[in-house]
Amino acid sequence: MWTQFESVHSVTYFHPRARAAYEAVGLRGYWRGYFAGRTAPLGAVEAPPVIAVFFNFAPRMVERALPSVWRLATPAEALRARLTGAVQALAEFTYELPESHLVEAAELLEAAAGEVEVAGRVLGAANAALPAGEYPLARLWQAATTLREHRGDGHVGALVSTGLDPVEVLAWRCRVDQSREFHRMARGWTDEEWAAAEDRLVDRGWLTADRAPTPHGTDAFRAVEEATDRAAAGPWRALGAERTERLRELLDPIVRRCRTIIPRQSPMGRPAAEETPAPAR
């Protein structure tokens, strides 16, 4: 289900209507909209807590955006902009679907999001506390976002347990199946910081001397992914297999269109080994 709700959530980052909605409230430039929109449920916070909960950004990149974005738009304005842009984006992808389809999908996704355990999950809790949207697409996107941030909080907890720091996590993953240049630049790390992280990964036994993933690193990261899945499973146990499968069917035509705007370098919303998700279990 991660590959479903993550794809729905992702329109806020990659659709031009989302970018335009942020610009309309004064948040010009991609990263101003990103940091203001994603942080807004927490209120007008400064950089330190965001460095913590976002986990993998270079601190100076967060510090360039926060708290300065709050001089351009309030958290309330950023929240309205992100929801407006997301709904307009989803409207382009769903105009051929009957309203009954969207209503049922929103109801089921909200039912799952209503079961999130918020203890220890800062972004998940902040999004779960927001009022429900008035229209089906707003409800759908907000529920997807709550589930997405809830799962992300659990993932950060699992990553912290490895003892790796944020740039080490990124550097290791990019030696497995991700783009070094995409993630290094998108998260604000320098070449020197990245190279030093790879050196530390060699010392930790996660990479070989020639920078290939070791069995130890592979096994340890597999354990992170399994822990992340376990921590995110509660809403789907509560929803049950039959309703989860029905939700997958309803989301599928929406998700397929959302994925068309996700950059290929990004892992967001993409199954690990195949384009079509496996049946619900």
TrEMBL record:
It comes from the Bacteria. Pfam families: HTH_67. InterPro entries: HTH_67. NCBIfam families: SCO6745_fam_HTH. This is SalK. It comes from Micromonospora mangrovi.
